[in-house]
Task: inverse folding
């Protein structure tokens, strides 16, 4: 790998207690280590040379101080609703390619755009229900919709996990 690729490679950032916090690039990791705010734990990427020295490129660093990060509510999005509902229609349980969002209590009747009022629905079920409630349309929901519980590791589920990170990620052990 060349220096530019190495400097942009992903680095796992751990809290002082070894809890995974986030992923940054090697350039940011060099800054944190150089300023004494973090320590290098794993060097799985190789080395970068300056005129006078060679530096290991970190793949895992640990902060020398504890960072308290509040648990955030997950943002409501189409993808998040489909993921929560298992990419299946909540009325007929089919898993078509084209899913839509359905408001259980239609917005035209005062229903809110919130986790508890939105489900995945296939196009035929959404058309059949139209502006009615499930009871009025004689349709049953597979499960009661709810907001996902806050998860401090949510951001890691959509990233490629490098081999040298595995020992620091609790859900992989």
Result:
């Amino acid at each position: 790998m060349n220096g530019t690729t190495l400097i942009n490679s992903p680095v796992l950032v751990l809290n002082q207690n070894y809890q995974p916090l986030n992923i940054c690039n090697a350039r940011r990791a060099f800054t944190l280590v150089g300023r004494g705010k973090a320590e290098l734990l794993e060097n799985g990427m190789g080395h970068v040379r300056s005129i006078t020295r060679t530096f290991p490129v970190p793949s895992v660093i640990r902060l020398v101080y504890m960072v308290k990060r509040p648990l955030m509510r997950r943002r409501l999005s189409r993808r998040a609703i489909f993921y929560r509902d298992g990419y299946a229609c909540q009325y007929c349980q089919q898993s078509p390619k084209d899913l839509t969002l359905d408001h259980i209590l239609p917005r035209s009747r005062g229903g809110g755009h919130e986790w508890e009022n939105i489900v995945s629905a296939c196009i035929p079920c959404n058309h059949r229900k139209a502006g009615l409630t499930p009871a009025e349309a004689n349709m049953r929901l597979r499960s009661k919709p709810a907001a996902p519980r806050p998860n401090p590791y949510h951001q890691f589920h959509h990233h490629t996990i490098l081999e040298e990170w595995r020992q620091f990620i609790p859900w992989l052990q």
